Amino acid sequence: MHLLITEINDILFKEAIEYFEEDNNYLINIENKPTFIQSIISRYLISKHIEENFWIKKYYPKTNENWTPIFEKNIYWSISHKWDYIFIWIWKEKIWIDIEIFKERDISLLDKITEKEYEILWWKNWQTFYTLWTGKESIIKRKQLKLDDIYKIKLKENTEEKNTKSGIIFSKKLIFDFNWEKLKVLSWMDNYLYYSVCSWLILIHNYE
């Protein structure tokens, strides 16, 4: 398993462009995304890891017209980015990830989460809001839902449980409900970064 959170920079961007420049069509497709810099660096980091650990040269992470990943060679990956930060995952099993950066917003946004969910996390504030939001976003990716479905996903349980995956620490195991299905998420905050991963296997087994 490989999880990585990194800050983008000019060196990474230059390396990413050079890595993919042999396939101009690949670059053109990604250029259509509004987050081109984050997208090309994320894919570069995935490609390099797969090349070094799966011995597959020039593995190009692909997506369909809805930007949903297309997986090949039984290798799975997920990308989340926010502003200057990138969160990526590569493994032989599926996992879904999300990252957010702390920022106080219109206070009415706090009311998008139910009082019961805040009670499970003890407090109603921006910290618990982002913990819940990233957890729900990771589930949206897993279930391929629409963003509006985020309000149908409800927190049911919170366990303070420390896990370390690829050097990244998670302190919470959250259980969400969506249409009577229980979905498990690992979550953590690091200063102003909030991140969550959703997977069945990662929570049942202690994969590193």
Explain the overall architecture.
This protein folds into 2 domains: 2-92, 4'-phosphopantetheinyl transferase domain (Ribosomal Protein L22, Chain A), CATH 3.90.470; 100-204, no CATH class. The protein contains 6 helices and 10 strands. It has helices at residues 10-20, 24-31, 36-53, 115-120, 126-143, 201-204, and strands at 2-7, 62-63, 69-70, 76-82, 85-91, 96-101, 154-165, 168-178, 181-190, 193-198. It has a 5-stranded antiparallel beta sheet. Strand 7 (154-165) and strand 8 (168-178) form a beta hairpin. The model is unreliable at 202-208 (pLDDT under 50).
Helix content: 25-40%
Main sheet specs = 5 strands, antiparallel
Domain count: the total is 2
Structural class: alpha+beta
Q: Compute the CA-based radius of gyration.
A: 17 Å
Q: What average pLDDT do the residues reach?
A: 86
Strands of the widest sheet, in order across it, are 6-10-9-8-7
**What is the total tally of β strands?**
10
Seen as an oligomer or otherwise, the chain set is single chain
Dominant shape: globular
Please indicate the percent range of residues in DSSP E strands (runs of 2 or more): 25-35%
Low-confidence stretches: 202-208
Give the H and E element order.
EHHHEEEEEHHEEEEH
Q: How many helical elements?
A: 6
Termini distance? 6 Å
